[in-house]
Please model this.
Amino acid sequence: MVSAAIACILIAPALAPAQEPEQSANGRLTGPPHAVIEMYTSQGCSDCPAADALLKQYIDQKNIVGLTLPVDYWDYLGWKDTLAGARNAERQRQYAERFGIGTVYTPQAVVNGAVEVVGSSESEIDRAIRASETALASSRVPVHFWHYGNSIIIEAGSAPNDSEPKEATIWLAVVQKSAQVVVKSGENAGKTLTYYNVVRELTPVGVWNGRPTTIRLARAAIMRPETEDLVVLIQEANTGPIIGAARLGD
Model:
């Protein structure tokens, strides 16, 4: 569906506190992953359920971070998306401007912040993964992300040798691993839709400028009851290429 106009955080109790960070494999992932896939979707879009199911296939691959970002600009068709956030639509608009595509649509997949494709096309997503992985190979930044005692700690490494680092935003995504919605009206009326890795909040928590960076966040200040995972993205500018990423829960 194409639109001409676009109409803090949980660590789940199941994640036990880490002991010494260097000894803990649980709740720690070192990046970068093979790919980060952002899926822009809507409960009011009849073309989206196939893309939502496809994203789950990528999420099941441990070296891929898949994120669902529900948007609200199809609400006028008769069903208000219960997971959508205006910030998701704004982020998608920023991508549309950078990619020069003139408009936003669903389902849309943005791969590594570098390539946009139709979100229901596995072949297009696979090509985007290969192309962006090659293009970003010399820019990748290692990321370590774990919880320790009462803190959440993010460590981003230095820029690769011989690269010219650009200033990057460090984003923290609050993720609900799954959500099931019974749609009662609109294009998907009568369907029960399941979403995976739903981004409930995406917040900038720091800036990376090519040098090693450590960010420490108070765990108590970011806990929320319905969210089960956290994801860190290191992204040039705000919606540029994603050069590093890590997932906390697994």
